[in-house]
Amino acid sequence: MYTEISLDNLRVKKLPHIWCAGCGNGIVLSAILRAIERSKIDKDKIVFVSGIGCAGRSSGYVNFNTLHTLHGRPLAFATGIKLANPDLQVIVATGDGDLAAIGGNHFIHAAKRNIDLSVIVFNNFVYGMTGGQLSPTTPEDSFTTTTPYGHIEEPMNISYLAIAAGATYVARETIGNPLMLEKYILNGLLHKGFSLIEAVSSCVTEFGRRNNLGDPAEYVKFLKDKSIPFSKVNSVESHDGIVVGEFVNIEKPEFVTSYYELVKKVAK
Amino acid sequence: MKERLMSGNEAVAIGAIKAGCRFFAGYPITPSTDLAERMSKLLPEVGGAFIQMEDELGSIGAIIGASLTGSKAMTATSGPGFSLMQEGIGFASFSEIPIVVVDVQRVGPSTGIPTYPSQGDIMQARWGTHGSHPIIALYPSSVKESYDLIFTAFNFSEKYRVPVIFISDEVIGHMREKITVDDSHVVFERKKPEVPKEDYLPFDSRYEVPPLANFGEGYRFHVTGLTHDETGFPTSDPVKAERLMERLQRKILNHLDEIFLYETFLVEDADILIVSYGVVARSAKEAILELREKGLKVGLFRPITIWPSSEKVLKDLASNRRVFVFEMNLGQYVHEVERIVKKKVEFYGKENGEIISPEEIESCILKSL
Question: Could you tell me what percentage of chain A is helix, strand and coil, using 3-state DSSP and rounding each to the nearest 5?
Fold first, then answer.
């Protein structure tokens, strides 16, 4: 069943958005909005936090309490919000550079605390906003404006890192399968603990152009064709493509709940 | 009213709780760590939240987030951590989110001498983050004043929607003095909007300080570090940018009468004016008494509000007097004094870990005669 996006959840006056024609971020954002719609969460209690970069601009278009933070810091701000007011549902929209490079330390520690935040990372393998430089997830041998001779590093596996750091819900899906992406985001919203949904997105203008990934539709098809179900390989990582699926879904004590249980014990 | 022996850092922690602080995020760093330790004990007792973050970038982010939910929030650090917090201080300045940042100064630059005092962060407190931003910085010179002034820090922060830098130093932070912990302080609560939700403008330029709604109460507004208009959404329109920048300056500078706090000591008949603050002002008072024994008429001007400064107050005090500035750095606040008094100012400073002693001040003045 297809969920309609409620226009009440969009700041329609702020459209058109700043993303390039053919950008995959709209597919990710619509999956988030449909998941929110299905979750039945009180909209006034949603705080939508983002960082800097293309994904970071998403907070300006959604009609919740919205916070466009500093580069790499959305998880730090989100941690303060959730701990100060546990009644709020805190959603973080971030990018591969924002989360895994400049914000890497906050990412590891937020996951380690298992604080109840729902994190959606728009992973498009590149710094789009600044014009196409390499990011932590840029695949080996790819061309970016700072790897004009091809990239010599192996990419970082964001989901793998989230699992290692202690995240209790981790899933990955590409924009080639938006309904599954929506489902994973919904699971993340309803999960109590740190959830990380890696949304593999496209950047036609800055990444696709330099790596012959074709027009927007061909790019989406490429991501879909490269997808390998987790059930097939039973590994978060494969050199043959992008492993997609729900990797982790477990219960562990959640930080804010544990903190206020402690407060109850010591409060005078 | 309870008399107690405590350190400056402890006085800040106890005062902060009484001023309504209910959120602290920090990262261990000498010589501010004991303040965080104290908050980790006190906050759970009053139902507040304490978190040790992964670094200072995280700490400042967390307190800004907490403040947006309506919680009075504070962090504490020292030089190297204060450097890391500058990006967050800029964000809070520009998006007008009340926070209190305690900086217990140690010797710098860089890692410096962690366990010894300095006053090397005076300019960083004013200009550490980029852009023309509003800020208030307060600096006590005793344990008792640390207790009293942390109320002022929270009150100014909430009243003017501005980060307040509470500057201290290793001596003030760790020195123990007997103080009276009283409950007589006025505590200011943040102004919240009274307009219907659809009419709310979080950066309404009809106010000097627009009311601030809490996240979660239905106002659904946008906060960004980008230049924004009255609605809070990004703009690159120079007219709107200028309107915001102008208001951010005005909301502080129009209220110097309230914000600018200072102490004078034996200035009425003085021919010589010493300018010093924090721990050095204590040495200066001793030196002044000694010099007066020798027949020299010396007085002290001690800014408690380090930023912004009051040109009027300092100009009046400096007129027809020789002016000396003593500070534990190689010349920071002296530039502000020179800018204001527009005449020769004599300067003595060092940042080697030693306090400037009364004897040094005395001999410096005697030599200059």
Answer: 45, 20, 35
